[in-house]
Amino acid sequence: MRLHFRPCLLALFFVALLSGCASFETTTSSGDFVKPTDMSSLDSFRYEHTMVSGMVDRRSSQALVMKKLSENVLTQELSQRGYASAGQEAKFYVVSKWRKEINLSTAEAVRFSLIVELYDAANQSLFWRAELPYIFNASQWSDARVSQTLRLAIQNFPDYIIKTSELPTSD
Q: Which of 3.30.160.670, 3.30.70.890, 3.20.20.70, 3.40.50.2000 is the CATH number of 26-154?
């Protein structure tokens, strides 16, 4: 009995050791504030730009579609939350970053990741960030999938709430 126990323990040890080296991917990450922020003054936004990296040709139709959809979807989502779309007078601005990357830990090696960042326009400081690493495989790329990913990234950003100076009375 003692002879069978040692190989089992040894095998269990190696399984535990190898699983500690495994890469567990996060496919969803809700956005969150990266610093305390007074949202009452942030009533308007502008879409700044989209960065696309990892593409051989940045003028490819895929990269151009990602840039256009990023601007359209994020502008639409923020407007639906009550923020006004503005030009240079905007209180905050939006940046999206797409990465086409090789991930050797999966069968589908080429995957896309997305980061959406919101910056306070007054001091150009980051206040909110959503990161969706390896969110979909390159073979799953479509306009609908890109739009769905952008909506997922911004879904936890709060609605704009109009600040009122009047306090309710208890009549």
A: 3.30.160.670
